[in-house]
């Protein structure tokens, strides 16, 4: 990227021949770069500071899978690495083919939920897959326990997941992780277990 795949090497190029602004714009054009600054220090060295655009989820679709960053932007998949993030499927009727679902008023609550999961050590490890159905209700498959967790729409998701965490901590160690295949925390003040 810095050298245009080796076509424009920086080493050996005279200081005055390097356009720092163009170099900065080239770096910023990469989808995985959120912010970039290119400058020269007093000794003439070129300094590049980059803030990375990190994926928080992988959106799976019939046409093209993409990563999703914390602002709801779509990022291309990388052939060099696979990000360890939660895979998400969305009913096509809900998104109607739009690339900005996670940035519009309907999709932003789901983005907040994904950011919460990505930052929470327990839920980031426990939740293996997220699905948003045509009515906008969220369900998860788990890593441990082979359960389907249903939280309904993402309103009050922190409260719902806190309630479920207490259930995981207090009830499942006694009853066993395999006892229930479905846990529903959609409704206030109750957990439906089957």
Structural account:
This is Cell division protein FtsQ. Keywords: Cell cycle, Cell division. The protein is α/β, with parallel strands linked by helices and 194 residues long. It has 2 domains: 15-52; 55-193, Cell division protein FtsQ/DivIB (Rossmann fold). Helices cover 25% and strands 27% of the residues. It contains 6 helices and 11 strands. It has helices at 20-28, 92-95, 108-119, 121-126, 157-170, 172-175, and strands at 33-40, 46-52, 55-60, 66-69, 74-75, 86-90, 127-132, 138-142, 148-152, 182-184, 192-193. It has a 9-stranded mixed β-sheet with strand order 5-4-3-6-7-8-9-10-11. The longest helix has 14 residues, at 157-170. The model has no long low-confidence stretch (mean pLDDT 89).
How are the secondary structure elements laid out?
Blueprint: H1 20-28, E1 33-40, E2 46-52, E3 55-60, E4 66-69, E5 74-75, E6 86-90, H2 92-95, H3 108-119, H4 121-126, E7 127-132, E8 138-142, E9 148-152, H5 157-170, H6 172-175, E10 182-184, E11 192-193
Parallel strand pairs: 3-6, 6-7, 9-10
Antiparallel strand pairs: 1-2, 3-4, 4-5, 7-8, 8-9, 10-11
Protein name: Cell division protein FtsQ
Keywords: Cell cycle, Cell division
């Amino acid at each position: 990227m810095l050298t245009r795949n080796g076509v424009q090497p920086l080493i050996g190029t005279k200081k005055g021949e390097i356009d720092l602004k163009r170099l900065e714009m080239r770096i910023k054009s990469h989808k995985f770069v959120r912010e970039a600054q290119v400058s020269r220090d007093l000794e003439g060295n070129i300094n590049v500071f980059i803030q990375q655009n990190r994926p928080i989820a992988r959106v799976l679709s019939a046409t093209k899978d993409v990563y999703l960053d914390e602002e709801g932007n779509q990022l291309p998949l990388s052939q060099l690495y696979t990000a360890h993030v939660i895979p998400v499927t969305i009913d096509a009727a809900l998104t109607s083919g739009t690339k900005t679902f996670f940035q519009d008023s309907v999709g932003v609550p789901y983005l907040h939920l994904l950011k919460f999961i990505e930052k929470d050590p327990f839920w980031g490890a426990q939740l293996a897959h997220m699905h948003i159905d045509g009515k906008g209700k969220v369900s998860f498959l788990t890593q441990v326990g082979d359960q389907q967790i249903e939280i309904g729409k993402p309103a009050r998701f922190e409260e719902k997941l806190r309630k479920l965490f207490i259930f995981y901590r207090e009830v499942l160690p006694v009853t066993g992780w395999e006892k229930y295949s479905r846990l529903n925390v959609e409704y206030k003040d109750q957990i439906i277990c089957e």
